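$ fold --in a.seq
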Amino acid sequence: YQVSEGLQLEFKKRYQFSVIGHYVGSTYAINDVQNVAPVVKPYWTADTKLSYEGSFFKAFFGVNNLFNERYYTYVSKSSSSLTRDFFPAPERNFVAGMSVSF
């Protein structure tokens, strides 16, 4: 189960700021069709982004996983045992970009 909710603010006609929260509930590992292994714990993350739009360009800077939550986006279970493999998600990371129009 997954829920996302966000808020976007615009100010001075050229700036935008957004915050998006994501919640993912507890799940069973992939290939655990009988649900015998322990569930994977739920997690929540928050992403932010600040954008500026000029006459001929747009620029943005963002922070993903703002609170540096440690979680797994993918967990698989062996078909012959309770062994599980965990694939961690990225920790806090930064993104930036720019586009030019002419």
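$ fold --in b.seq
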Amino acid sequence: MTEFRAEVGFSALSQVEAYWEALRGTRLVPKRSDIDPRGIESALEYTFVVERIAPGMARIRIAGSHLSDLMGMEVRGMPLTSLIAPSGRRQVNDLIEDVCQRPALCEMRLNADTTITKSHLDARMLLLPMKSDLGDISRILGCFVARGDIGVAPRRFDVIGAKIRPLTASSMAPTPPMQDETGHETPARADGFAEPVSPFQTRTPRRDVPYLRVVKSDD
């Protein structure tokens, strides 16, 4: 996923991703309530949080100053695709759906073309899924970095490329075998419909019962 960040100036994306990875640990994704702005203080101006409100649609809930500078206005409450040129909005909507439904991590490479009043901008956007307080994956921690002179706002971006990586929870350590009171391992509980296997034991004849008996008959 770091292939798009080879150029100098996109370190904020790596910082946000590393913070998100640390939060999720062995879980599939972290919770929105786990986020502490102090953990990504140096990247806050490029960071945002969006809420998936419908299939493929995400609304910006929190955004750093860099996004507001690009749009020339406060972006809270606006769709995330407001930053995208009309021709690329359908693709971004599909990527948002992948991020929340698979779930997956997504990184996009974007640019804004040069005009008389606007210089070329090279940008990267990172989308990282999170759970809401209800437990559904409907929040996204994002990072958007554009390099160059912003010029006259608003600036909207074309999607040049995208990479997506489906997520899996980290495997947990195997559970050690149970032991009985004597310290011996007890049989593990079988899965499915199988019953647990009892340990094999040999039986010895009781000493208080004679092995042979004489049966007397007067007939």
